[in-house]
User: What shape does this take?
Amino acid sequence: MSTADNIPQKPVLQTVIMHNAEADAQLYSGSEILLKTLVDLGVDTIFGYPGGAVLPIYDTLFSNNDIRHILIRHEQAGTHAADGYSRATGKPGVVLATSGPGGTNTVTGIATAMMDSIPLVVLSGQVPTSVIGNDAFQEADIVGITRPITKQNYLVRDVNNLEHVLKEAFHIATHGRPGPVLVDLPKDMLNTKTKYAGLDNNVDIPSFKPTLYGHHPQITKAAEMLSNAKKPLIYVGGGAILGNAWEEVTAFAEHLNIPVTTTLMGLGAFPESKPQSLGMLGMHGTWYANMAMTECDVLIAVGARFDDRVTGRLNGFSQNSRKIHIDIDPSCIGKNVDVEVPIVGDVKHVIPAINKLATPPKIDEWWATIHKWQREHPLVVPKAVDKIYPQHMVKMISEVTNGNAIVVTDVGQHQMWAAQHYHFNHPRSWISSGGLGTMGYGFPAAMGAAIAYPDRDVVCITGDGGFQMSSYELATAVEYKIPVKIALMNNNCLGMVRQWQQLFYEKRYSYSVFGSNNPDFVKMAESYGCLGLRAENPEQLKSVLEQAMAIKDAPVLMDIRVVEEENCYPMVPSGAALFEMVESDEEAGK
Amino acid sequence: MSNPVSVKQPKHTLSVLVKHNLNTLSRIIGIFSSKGFELDSVTFAAEAEPGMARMTITTRGDEKTVEQINKLLYNVVDVLKVINLTHKKSIERELAIVKVSTVKSGRPEIMLIAQAFQAKVIDITSDKLALEVTGNSDKVDAMIEVLKPYGIVAMSRTGSVALKREFQGAVNIN
Assistant: This one.
């Protein structure tokens, strides 16, 4: 086994020699090279927080007009904001944090992005190379800490490599299955001067060549299976959004007239206004989507990864279907569920190729069955005149925004209700932490989306639990006039935890109820200089929503008091199969 | 690493060509530690081509597990090539240094065993012998088993290094 000693290290740059040899070339500091490279790569916005190790970068930023720097109030929120910016635009999000705690604060945000395959580039400060490993002030081994939650990461030890490393980082973050990449920048690298090479943005990495086009015989086989299917189903995941393939997926489903269900991450990849849409499947999916998954005979998974929240109990999952799986990451195929036709490739290329070869299957009977299910088991919205039910709240937001808003959520009951009841017709308009399930994600991610699209309505549907994990970002939203509309579904408890405790722990509500210990959210907003509104009945809700949506240049916080002990259904109980889902408290036996 | 249940799983030898840096080594070890795969031995050293290194990894698992390991190795950005040598003709060697007590039996008996395994005596003291043995892992295992009753004081094994055999026809020169 080799050790650090016998790994060759490139010699540190000899600035003096460089200077003599290239007397005419202009020299730039590492900080200047960093910002020049970011501009080269098309970065216009970064989210950051200053500190000792990154002072050289902040000094360069002080007189820089090419990059907009948003001063967030916590590096975790900054990472979520960059993530939200990326999900809304498709461009990589960029975060800048100082060494030590600055870097470690980004960890939850990086892990969130990793689980949902979001392209991020995290720039972290580091103590000078001369003291790395000496437990210097604000030193943390952030490359080591983030190794399992990044697609790749770097410690820059030679300023001559800086531009190349950054361009490679952006290339890796955005190509193949996207993901976060961290670049650690020791302070001396930021001060050392060298010339700027102006390398090509398209970096060639021999060891990194994602497969895009799919294996042709497999594509032919998939087309044949779909053309001859009796009960086919298209199951679309976040890969269709990340791969910008919603048009291809829509054309494919409409041409073959096959029902489509999307995962939580795939919402918006296929318009819910189309007759083929069955909405979301999984733990809180629609009854008919879960039954279609159970009963189908040919299943095509499109950029989805058979997550446990989608499959339920594996030995009860879609037992009679022949499965086709398209994914750009080969390690996702066959990981949880065995498939007959694996296709490694980009959805954007593979789906049109299958569509060209396939003919619409004859599935009138299948459609008749599905329509019967849809009539018999619709999503339920409780009716009430004097109280606000959470489902009703989401439906009203959907109506007031005409289904055109960018909806960003935290994690829990409100997230599932938003996924079920907001009418999603547009891609990149649903932003939610799916894989990691990060509370506190919603509000900063919504800020990132609103900064990217100042002219679109951005609604952050959050809960009283999740919002309190990043409420301090109200200061940022007010400072930059970020017009996020926070619809706080306030049930004075951690609703999803409480629901599980009700259903599976005999209503022993252990540490899940805030009750009157919650702050006055309206006053909280006002203390930051943000408009705070409150709604306690459906009538007030409508006027509060209309008032908030009319404001286009400032954040608004709406404290919406909803029915506290409402549960989210349908629900596939933990350990149950999809077809064992329950639709009400009565059916759950509680 | 030493889950007794999965010791019965078939052994696989993977030869992995990587960029020569510690981040890559850590990422590869991380696949095994974070996903709970078996790891019998790992070697990591420079390749002939500058900047490159070769790893030989011996692991245990069914075909599906090893296929998943293979895919995850390829997901590491700095991994260029993974060859599963298990179903190929390969050349494999391991070296071990074994210190054996000579108190029970005296030197000649142990030296006879060493001779049978073509092991060399590389250190000798009043009550111990150090033997150097080279061969495939099975041979090294076999010699260690034979020496155990005499009292192994200490030993150090390199783990397997392996390459694909150029001639894939039938040969037996192990």
Chain A has a mean pLDDT of 94. The domain at 216-376 of chain A is CATH 3.40.50.1220 (Rossmann fold). The interface with chain B takes residues 1-2, 4, 6-8, 143-144, 147-148, 151-155, 172, 205-208, 329-331, 334-335 of chain A (CB under 8 Å). The longest helix of chain A spans residues 75-89.
